Amino acid sequence: MKFKALFVFFLCISMHYLHAAEISVSPIYTVSEIAFNGPSQTQNDANLDFWVIFTHESGSPSIKIWGFFDGDGAGNNTGNVFKVRFCPTKSGKWTITDTYSNNATLNNQKEGDYVTGEASTNHGFWEVDKANGGGRWYKRNDGSHQFIAGNTMYSVLKYRDLTGIISDMNGNADYYKKLRFMIDGEEGYLGGPDPATTFPNVSFYNSKADYAVTTALGKDMVADLILYKALYKTHGEAYVKYLAARYGSYPNVWFCLANEWDIKDSISPTRAAAMGQQLRKYIPYGNPLSIHPNNGTGWNTALNTTPAWNDHKISQQKTKMLDVAADYATINYARIPTGIPYFNDENGYEGAGDGYSGDDVVEGIVGSFAGGGYGSTAYKPAKAQGQYSRGNFNAVEHTASSKLKWFQDAIDAHIDFWKLEPVTLANSIFTNTSTPFRALQEVGNQYIIVSKSAKTMTANLPAGTWSLKQIDIINKTITTVNNISGNYSFSSPSSRACINYFRLAVSSPSPVILSPMAGNLFTPGKAYTATGSGENLSWNVSVVNGSVIASGTGSSINFTVPSDTPNNAQIKVQLTGGTNSNEVVSQNYTVVDDAPVINSPSAQNIVVNTPFSIQLTAAGNGNPFVWSSGVLPSGITLSSGGLLQGSFSSSGSKSISVSVADLDGDMDTKNLTIEVLDAVPSYCEANGQVVIEAENYYSKNMNGDQVGWTGGTAFTGFSGSGYMETVNAGLPNAAGWTEAADLSYNITFSTIGNYYLWALVYAPDGASNSANVGMDGNQVGTTSIGGGTSWSWQKHATTFNVNANGLKTINIRRREDGYAIDKILLTNDASLTPTGNQQAQNSMCGTNVTTNNTMVSKKKSFNIWANRIYITNLTEASNLQLVSLDGRVILNKIVKSSDFEINTTGIASGYYILAIHNEEKTVREKIHILSAN
């Protein structure tokens, strides 16, 4: 009976595959689309599970592809057609070994059918080249590398018809390697705001988005698809799942989670990271994925997760300066997570909108390359106008295009760019350089100095015969000099963007130690690689007056400094070689055995029951560090990489013990004190005016600045309990808005309109008389200059536009040190000029309620009666908190129904903060309870 049962089982399997059919013959790295018959799609069944597994005939790999609803298969929104898009990654037969759906009609369809992959010259998907250049550059599945300069057309799918979209894709591909654009926008979903009653707008994706992606694929141009965060906020995981299924099998598709995620209807970094994690799990081929931040900011480490959901970092930092663009690249690369590519996706927009010329754009993007990164541009004649917004590509108008195409082609033809890493001018082979120049190198083989003006310099070349190519991007010329060696003097051209590229042509037989460079410090327990050039090479690495660490032959040797090597010991690296193997060179390196020191984390506002993340860092030479902790509060975790994250369930001061260990076991332990805020207090604007004493700030943050805001009383004549100042330490001005020490003041506005900011300031001299100001984290401008050794009111020249009632945050950030502020005043009265210092500070916001008062805050309301608080229209899984003004938690409850009643019997009369938290937002109100007890 057992034998008979097995026979029947295998007979069923054989009969199942007996009817297998070839679906298509597809060249590798093209997309085969397979249609399935499913249930008729309705608004109530929009997100069913459906996936297919393809397995190669060799048994590996197996690729899981998610399916998507495609209406009637011909562009109409209703129907029963579901599709899977599959991309074969190697030649041979790919069989559907499993089809799964929670819908019986789709389940098990087409199992046994197959796609035949044929050899092709296609390059394939993009992936980080982790083996070269410190992981800064991308390579393709076939091992090739193409340099990327990108363009931008945000709303091309919205404003262009099909003919225009195809024309724009082809036009961009003739000049650029990447185009970023919104994949849908508000056109992406139909129906109401409830995800259960909405469904993908198949007609839009079929008639526009699909054509944009496939046209770009035909030209091997990256389609960098920007998702619409408003759709994610409404539809959540269903939205990213649909787009991953529809476009994740295209080798040219990259995903950008959102454009400017932290402004314009922003989402929190925690939610942005969750969006990235969700999208990543549905992408079958590991397509590049990141997110685009606010103007002027770099990568926000609060987005980091373990493991990382993103494979590159994006910033939006416009500059026409080569050195500034290069430094943006090196700074952002160094931010955790390190070892992944960096894009400045708004390197510079040509046109009257931003005031950039074509050559301004070129210099900036070449600067990003000089810092080990990539850049993107656009043509912007005015805000929300022209090519950057509405498409209609025109290279004659966007003059940078032809030079950037030439730049990409020149790099691909002449430079192994993926092996390069930036190096400081002081540590490069170049001397007599100019400060704005920047250098890259592949030690022993390639050396570059990127120049922006005429300058005579010296390249101190390693042994061998070298060539020099001067690649002038502005003038599109290449000048070559061959057969050079030694300390070679050369002049860069009078050009804003020139790559002076030295490449080894013929190596010398004599031994030369190429790396580590002289002066490098070694760390106990750390692994190193020494590289050299010459013939018949043999190595010996030892502790001076100690034991041999390693020996070997060849062009390189790997070794690890013993963990017990004492501080200031010398490691000798000796290289023997030459035609007769009798030439010897050596280099000594000093060992520094310092213990790591935990840096104080940058201050940030952490609110109870609100997710946060802090990337801990430490100073020291023993990287990579390993982090650990004592017992952590419930809901808090610390990764071995130092990412502290979670949410606190109560407010107040929290002490957390963290430790860090370096490679040889040296440790530092520190108790971190984290202030967890219970609510966001604010001052109430009244009758178009609000006054706040400067010392009554909501938060202050260093933001990496050298000088912070501190309280002071030395300058007499202040009001209140003191004033805030940046102590005069003789230090340079703050590096910029994003890295300047911040004071934040929360204000609840009930009167919309333009407001004028006055500050009561003390500015002792001309080097201490300005600060930067802004609203909601965005810079508005610099305060008017005021001087003198007495307090005076200074008016900010730019108005603050308050276009809606509610909470706004006013930011004051350091520009110079020695500047003091006693009071700030915002008014909508353009004619007001304050005098003296007797203006009364406005009251903190709150609604005093005794009976039957309704407070409405976007779909939520609650009524307060003598012995109960009745709350309606709650979002499911809301967290309710009632907290006294001194921080005592009276109630902390997760509510799973839409209505809830708080019995106030036993609660003392007084003022309290009632807070309602859910995934979308937090509502807080100050209330007055009159107990009837």
Description:
There is one protein chain. The chain has 933 residues and is mainly beta. It has 11 helices and 67 strands. An 8-stranded parallel sheet has the order 17-16-15-12-11-20-19-18. α6 runs parallel beside α7 and α9 runs parallel beside α11. It starts with a helix and ends with a strand.
Percentage of helical residues? 10-25%
User: What does the average pLDDT come to?
Assistant: 86
- CATH class placement of the largest domain: Alpha Beta
**How many structural units, i.e. domains?**
7
Largest pleated sheet: 8 strands, parallel
Number of strands: 67
> Measured on Cα atoms, how large is the radius of gyration?
32 Å
Primary descriptors:
single chain; 933 residues; mainly beta; Immunoglobulin-like; TIM Barrel; 7 domains; 8-stranded parallel beta sheet; 7-stranded antiparallel beta sheet; 11 helices; 67 strands; globular; disordered N terminus
In terms of topology, how is this protein built?
Elements: H1 2-18, E1 22-27, E2 32-37, E3 50-56, E4 62-66, E5 68-69, E6 81-86, E7 92-101, E8 114-118, E9 126-128, E10 138-140, E11 149-152, H2 156-159, H3 162-173, E12 178-182, E13 189-191, E14 198-200, H4 202-218, E15 222-226, H5 229-235, H6 237-247, E16 253-256, H7 269-282, E17 289-290, E18 313-315, H8 322-334, E19 342-350, H9 358-370, E20 374-379, H10 387-390, H11 400-414, E21 421-423, E22 430-431, E23 438-442, E24 446-451, E25 455-460, E26 465-472, E27 477-484, E28 487-492, E29 498-506, E30 512-515, E31 521-522, E32 527-533, E33 538-543, E34 548-553, E35 556-560, E36 570-577, E37 583-591, E38 597-598, E39 606-607, E40 612-615, E41 618-619, E42 626-629, E43 636-638, E44 643-646, E45 652-661, E46 667-677, E47 683-684, E48 689-693, E49 699-701, E50 709-712, E51 723-726, E52 742-749, E53 753-763, E54 771-775, E55 778-782, E56 788-795, E57 800-802, E58 806-814, E59 820-827, E60 853-856, E61 861-864, E62 868-872, E63 878-884, E64 889-895, E65 900-903, E66 910-917, E67 922-929
Parallel strand pairs: 1-8, 11-12, 11-20, 12-15, 15-16, 16-17, 18-19, 19-20, 31-37, 39-46, 47-52
Antiparallel strand pairs: 2-6, 3-4, 3-7, 5-6, 7-8, 9-10, 13-14, 21-23, 22-25, 23-24, 24-29, 25-28, 26-27, 26-29, 30-32, 32-35, 33-34, 33-36, 36-37, 38-41, 40-44, 42-45, 43-44, 45-46, 48-59, 49-52, 50-51, 51-59, 52-58, 53-56, 53-57, 53-59, 54-55, 54-58, 60-61, 61-62, 62-65, 63-64, 63-66, 66-67
Helix pairs in contact: 3-4, 6-7, 8-9, 9-11
